[in-house]
Amino acid sequence: MKQSRIALCSCRCANSAPTYFSRLVAAIFTLSLSWVYPLTLAAQPAAKPVKGAALPAAKSPAGKSALPNNSIDLTRAHREHLLADPHRPGYHFAIPEGSARPFDPNGCIFWKGRYHMFYIYQDSRGHNFGHVSSTDLCHWRFHPTGLAGGMFSGNCFVNKEGKPTMCYHDTQKKGNSMAVALDDQLNNWEKLASSPITPQTAPGDRHHGKYRSWDPYGWLEGDNYYAIFGGKHPGIVKSATLDGPWKYVGDLLANAAPGVGIDEDISCADFFKIGNKHMLLCISHGLGARYYLGEWKNEQFHPDFHEKMSWVDNSYFAPESLLDDKGRRIMWAWLCDLPGIKTRSPFGWSGTMSLPRVLTLDDAGWLRMNPPEELDRLRYNEQSVPPLEIAADKQEVLKDLSGNSKELFVEMIPDKATQQYGVAVCRSPDGAEQTLIYYDAADKKLKIDTSKSSLGDGTKTVEAGPLELPAGESLKLRVYIDNSVIEVFANDGRQAVMRRIYPTRQDSIGVALFSNGGRTQIKKMTAWEMMPSNSY
């Protein structure tokens, strides 16, 4: 994964506010930026004291530095500031402070009854792994940062001694490395002194100079540890012990997959058994999130299928998965705020995860991606829409249905003449702002059109994932709306697409149904409000 330059933004309130609040906001962001970005803000002036009654000096445990006297006021102001952001997601996990670029999920593991997820963020120590855990995939508890300094893309697996082990790229040691958990909360870790595990080669060695020490993925198989070293020519290394010596096995890929070159960049690798196949989840910095299906044999991967998970840009990025105690393969990805979107700037944060996706292979060997059942617990205020018919080339506004924190289910049956049919969400009453989600029968794709999602900035594009519905098959959409995030799952997980949107109007919360070219029958439609699971 390329290290992106961190975008620094000034804090500007969108609306006028009392002087006291403005000063609080200025104070918190001056201080937080000086904590998070000291490498680039060395000359940042010190934060001015917050006006008001002085707090008593903070007491601290032995060996720990005291908090600043105004830290409570600053924390409260920071929380209020984020809660005022109309685009901050409520039930997609979002960074609690600062801007993380990248915000890749890493080290995902189900351990001792908890889902653990680590994520990249930056401060004066460089790249670190933030750490959260959950028992329901919705509500996350923050842990101390036990892996700090130099932490970049990697994964977590269980070693021969039964301990969680992190395989990651160390940007300080400039090589792929290992760390072992010291407790079952996964709060404390030992970075192995034998790291980096990058094999040393010399001219004349058949592997010399062929592989990068980059974006690794490690696992235990039989008596050997293996790791994928990512890049444009990914390789395999192995060792009988974590401490090494590690040796190159050879190329990861035995052959090219249909539709993609054998030299395409493979970064943020995630490799596992699914059904009767092996799946290689990864990104290409040119193609975004994608996956291969194939066979792992003789210490090499033989792919026979390849597909992308994002198409128009790289907004869906850096996938990472885990296997839970129910046997489910669950995946997350970073939902990028693309550079240049000024709407985000005043609120001073960036870092959003996708909804978890449960990955399975159907009986025909095709990938299915579905939201986990745990998300249903966030539903409330259920509404049903009676069956109705949408006339050709019409949009039917649902007057009693609106909101920007919703889940929608809709089943639609088109006429033979119908070309596009679907739902418009985050719609203003006059239609000036709206996001279209639909099936394009001519193009055989599931699409999200954001060309009118915002009267301000944002990506004005059409995301389109391949989906072919045979004649007579209805379209079934599960649509998740979460302020600035739209995620859509179609026909029992046969395709999934997402977009970030930034409506400018407070009344852009309407829902409508539409049909182009012919009529469409709405067989069933149900909507729920979604309870935010982020604390703020």
Describe this structure in words.
The chain is mainly β. It has helices spanning 19-36, 71-83; strands at residues 105-111, 114-123, 126-134, 141-142, 151-158, 164-170, 175-181, 189-191, 217-221, 224-229, 235-239, 247-251, 267-274, 277-284, 288-297, 300-308, 316-323, 329-335, 352-353, 357-361, 367-370, 379-385, 388-390, 394-402, 405-414, 420-427, 435-440, 445-449, 462-466, 475-482, 485-490, 495-500, 510-516, 520-530. Strands 22, 23, 25, 30, 31, 32 and 34 form a 7-stranded antiparallel β-sheet that branches. The protein has a 6-stranded antiparallel β-sheet with strand order 24-33-26-27-28-29, with no helix packed on it. Helix 1 crosses helix 2. The protein is globular.
Would you kindly provide a brief summary of this structure?
The chain has helices spanning 19-36, 71-83; strands at residues 105-111, 114-123, 126-134, 141-142, 151-158, 164-170, 175-181, 189-191, 217-221, 224-229, 235-239, 247-251, 267-274, 277-284, 288-297, 300-308, 316-323, 329-335, 352-353, 357-361, 367-370, 379-385, 388-390, 394-402, 405-414, 420-427, 435-440, 445-449, 462-466, 475-482, 485-490, 495-500, 510-516, 520-530. With 536 residues, the protein is mainly beta.
What can be said about the biggest beta sheet? 7 strands, antiparallel
Computed CA radius of gyration, to the nearest angstrom = 24 Å
* SS element count, helices: 2
DSSP helix fraction: under 10%
Shape: globular
**What is the terminal separation in angstroms?**
29 Å
Arithmetic mean pLDDT:
89
Which structural class do you get from the secondary structure elements? mainly beta
pLDDT below 50 for ≥5 consecutive residues: which ranges?
1-60
Roughly what fraction of the amino acids lie in strands? 35-45%
Q: What oligomerization state is this entry in?
A: single chain
The number of distinct β-strands equals: 34
